[in-house]
What we know:
The chain is an alpha+beta fold. It has a single domain (34-152), classed as tt1808, chain A, CATH 3.90.1570. The chain has 3 helices and 9 strands. It has helices spanning 35-50, 99-112, 146-152; strands spanning 13-16, 19-24, 29-32, 58-66, 69-78, 84-90, 116-120, 125-130, 137-140. A hairpin with a 4-residue loop joins strand 7 (116-120) and strand 8. The chain is globular, with a radius of gyration of 15 Å.
Amino acid sequence: MLELNLPKYKYRIEQRDGKLAIFDPIRKKFIVLTPEEWVRQHFLNYLNEHLNYPTTLTSVESGLKYNTRSKRSDILIMDNSLKPLVLVECKAPSVAINQGTIRQLSVYNAVYNAKLLVVTNGMVTHAVLSSESSSSYEPLSQIPDYNHLKALI
């Protein structure tokens, strides 16, 4: 698989039903290894192991309803009150981060109202802090660690 602009880690890959699968420690099972899943697992590791976001408050591919459509968010991290804190949209490395991917994230956040929004393809990552008092977003040059984010909001 492609080397990403994210920290390396010791992942577990196995052959399952004739396909490669990577272990997801949040869902506690092997998931078919697609380019998007490769990014998602690396980003989960980055958030949980390097930036100290709690795995106990992290969910992967959470279902949500937008209007009458069912959607799935890639990564959702809650705060200690179980309110959405971080929403991450992951794309395959070959998918450009553009207005369409950012719009998808904002549609999902209309449901969640998370404070930190991130979109990544593993090569390029953009993060913004959502303002509660208005519908404005503050671009961030880096993703804050868990304790720093809690201090920001």
